Structures
1.
Amino acid sequence: MTQDELKQAVARAAIAYVVDGAIIGVGTGSTANFFIDELGTIKDRIKGAVASSESTAARLQSHGIRVWDLNEVDSMPVYIDGADEIDASGAMIKGGGAALTREKIVASVATQFVCIADGSKLVDVLGKFPLPIEVIPMAVAVVSRKLAALGATPVMRMKDGKPLVTDNGCYIIDAANMRISDPVALEQTINNIVGVVTSGLFARKGADVCLLGMAGGVRTMTFPGQSSLL
Ligand code: 5RP
C-alpha cells in the first residue's frame, strides 16, 4: 500500500468515531483532508464541523459541511487530526502544516482526540521531525536564541523565499535536532518562552486514540490516561 492509501484507510476508519448529530473538530494536513472527504459522504449525519485552519474550512465547505466558529461551540465529542510523530504514550509532534495553534485550541474543546496517521509516524522518541513552534514575528530572534540554549537548531520556516505566515499572522520556527525524552516538560518549557504562541508538542494533552495505517490493516492504539488530563 502507498502512504496515501494508508492515510485513506485510517481516514475511513475514523468515521466510526463521528458522533451522529454532533459538531466535529477537524484537523489539517493530507490525512485530515482524506478524512474531510470521507466526512463529506456522511455530512447529513452531523451538525457541522469546527476547522483548525483556513484550508480545512475551505475543504469542509466545498463538501457542503457547515463550518462553525469555535466561539459558538461549548463542547465537541471528538477532534480528528493527523500527526507528524506520535509515541507510545499518545504524545505527538504536530504543525508540519503550520496549523498547530488552532489545532491545539480546537482539540482543547473536544472530549476525545483521535489521531489518524500512517504507520511511519509511530516513533520511540519524539524529535526526529523538527518541532514546529509558532512565534510572534518580533520575537523570532530571541525565541531562536532560547531554543538554541535548549540544544535545538532553530530554522525559520520559509515559503517562496519569505517567512511562512500562519493563519494567525505569525511565523514558524522548526526546532531541529531535539531528542525529546520528556515531552510534557519540554512542552511547558517552550510554551513559557515569551514570544512563543505555542509549540507543536501535544504531550500534556495528547491523543486518546490513534488509528495507525499499517500494511496489514488499521491498528488502534488507545491511551486511557489522556482523557483525565482534559
Ligand atoms: C498540520 C499538522 C498535521 O496534522 C501533520 O503535519 C500531519 O500531516 P499529514 O497528515 O499531511 O502527514 O499538524 O499542522
2.
Amino acid sequence: MRFWKEKRLLLGISGGIAACKTPELIRLCREAGATVTVVVTEAALQFVTRTTLEALSGGPVHGDLFAPGGSMEHIHLGRETELVILAPATADLLARMAAGIGNDLLTTLLLAHQGPVLAAPAMNCRMWRHPATRRNVALLQGDGLHLVGPETGTLACGEEGEGRMAEPPAILEAGRRLLTPQILAGKHLLMTVGPTREALDPVRYLTNHSSGKMGMAIAAAALRAGARVSLVHGPTASSPPSGATAIPVTSAREMAAATLGLWPDCDAAILTAAVADYRPATSQAQKMKKDGSGAALTLELVENPDILATLSARRAAPPPPGSTPLPASPLLVGFAAETGSALDHGREKLRRKGCDLLVVNDVAEAGSGFGEETNRVSLLWRNGREEHWPLLTKAEVGERLVAQVAAALATTGAK
Ligand code: CTP
C-alpha cells in the first residue's frame, strides 16, 4: 500500500485485554510500509509483552517518562509522527486525557503532541456507557480527538454490548481517512456496483462475472476523501466499505428504482455496475421442470431499463415550467467493460449514453479481467479529452478516479 510508505505512526497502548490485538495492528501497519513507534502505559505490559512489541515494531518500546537519557522523549516522540493511534484506549486513559493529566510518558506526550490522534476505545459496555466516560469522550471529541469504534459484540468478560475494540484493519483504514486530503468533503456520491441477477424461477437466474471490486475500491477512496457515499449494489462477494450507505438490490429494475430515487440529491454518480441488459420475459413462480423430451428450451428475454441513459436523459431534460431553478447537474460517470477495440466501443458508448466521463477497460486483457486486483483503464471525457492509465491496482484506479471527479466537480461547481 503506497499510502503508508514513509509514514510515521506512534502507537500508544494502554492496559486493557484488547492490547492482545495490538501486535496484529503493528504487523499490519508495518506491512503497509509505515514505521511504528510504540509507547505503552505501565498497565499495558500486563496484557502484551515488551518482547512481542519490540519484535513486531522493530524498535524499542517506550514507557518510562524518567528513562535514563530520555528526559525529552515526550516532546521528541510526538514531533516525529504523522498520526498517533491509541489502541486500546481504556476508560482510564480517556479520563486522564480529558482532564489534561500527564502522569506517564503516553499522557505527557499526548499533551505535547499537535497532530491528529485516533483512539480505538475498548472496555466493558457498562464502563463505556458510564456517565463519566460519556462526558470524557464528548470533551475529547470537542478537543479534536477522533474515534474508531468501539464495536458491539461479545466482550472479553463474556457480556454482550458496545465496547469491543475495532479490528486492526478498521483502525488502519480510519487512520488513513484522517490523513487523506478531504477533496470530496460535503459531496454526495451515488454509485452502482456489482452484477444484477434476473430470476428465471425461484432457483435460477441470469447474471454476469462482475465481482464489484472496482466499484468498492472507488467507494473506499471517495469515503476517505470525505464524500458521503450511497452505494446501490447487486449481489457481490466484496463488502461495501464501512461508512458507505449500502442499498442492496438484486435485479436491474430494483437497481434502477433505488438509483433514480437517490439521483436528485447527489453531486456525482459513478455507475460501475454490470447491469444485466435483459431479463426473462416471465419469471416462473415455481421451479421450472424438464419435460424429458430432450427438446431445446427457448427463453424469451426483454430489455432492462438503462440506468445510465435514463439519468443522462433526465439531466438533459428542460426544467418543468414554473419549477424552482434546478441545482447544477450531477456529474455522470459510466464504466464500460469491453472486449476487442475497447476504445472504439467506448467512444461510441460515450456518445450514445451521454455521460461526462466513460471509464473503459478491456476485460480480455491480462490483469484487467473480472475479479482481478488490477485494472488498466482509459478515461474518455465528453469534451474529447482522453487519458490512458497504466496497469494499476484497483485501489489506485479508485484513488486517481476520485481525484479526477473532485477536480471536475470543483471546475463545474456542481451543487
Ligand atoms: N448501464 C446501466 N444500465 C443498464 C446497462 C448499463 O446503467 N441497463 C451502465 C453501466 O453501469 C455502465 C454503462 O452503462 O456504467 C455501460 O454499461 P455496458 O453494459 O457496457 O453498456 P451497454 O449499453 O449495455 O452496452 P453493451 O451492449 O456493450 O452491453
